[in-house]
Amino acid sequence: MKQYLELCTHILENGTVKEDRTGTGTISVFGYQMRFDLQKGFPLMTTKKTAFRLIATELLWFLKGDTNLRTLIQERNPIWDEWGFERWVTSEEYTGPDMTDFGRRSVKDEQFAEVYAQEMDAYKRRVVEDDVFAEKYGNLGPIYGKQWRSWSTADGSIDQIKLLIEGLKNNSDSRRHIVSAWNPSEVADMALPPCHTMFQFYVAEGKLSCQLYQRSADVFLGVPFNIASYALLVHLIAEECGLEVGDFVHTLGDAHIYLNHMEQVKEQLSREPRALPTLKLNKEGKSIFDMTFEDISIEGYDPHPKIKAPIAV
Known about the structure:
The chain is an alpha+beta fold. The chain is 38% helix and 22% strand.
């Protein structure tokens, strides 16, 4: 994963300190590209343990067109918890303790962290148990799954992933194998506007490659997940279309390290990368839309220990 470590070094050496939406502050560069040859191994971070189960279950959630947090909670996947929770605690119906700036406060204040954990647990239980509550406060709005599988039009909706697969099977040389998550008419209704906004597939010599444009990239916490997620997507689409995997090209817009992640990044840079693992798929005649996490596995993964850092919401 030297490409990722080179990105971290580039930002530390060339980045500009900027303010951001969360109030945390970042060091940032604009415009950066990485390329991963998927024939040489699955690009799951080895300089810190990265939770592949969370990456895979989130991607499958997207591919099924789901946008409700209930599914991820039941999968024990907390990736989107904070954004659903924020919608709840900023609503007029919420009457509990003040949760303003809960992400940073829970790191600095142990007493508040206990209260926050209790409120989050109560929120997640209610999403799972209360259908009405889940529909209102577990739904994250028209985020990735909605845009990928049911892009709204005046006449109905467009299933971009099915069209992508059909196009790859029937006209592999087309330059229009594109899926967009950035829908200007619905961005304001999303819990989080899409960071990975658009991707394009390309076929050459029987190999499927993908280029992602990511407008905003949280380099320490988010980017390792994004790399592995889209690498997995390439494998799944390639399997569906009878192709081999090629390259994953990751193009970043605002690539930033949060100022409260600086020590974690430096610790990661001090570690030596290890051999990449391999990905195994067990489709058994299934469509990718019917696959579960049990159909996907990683072999030979031997990472350094995980490094914790607060998420900026």
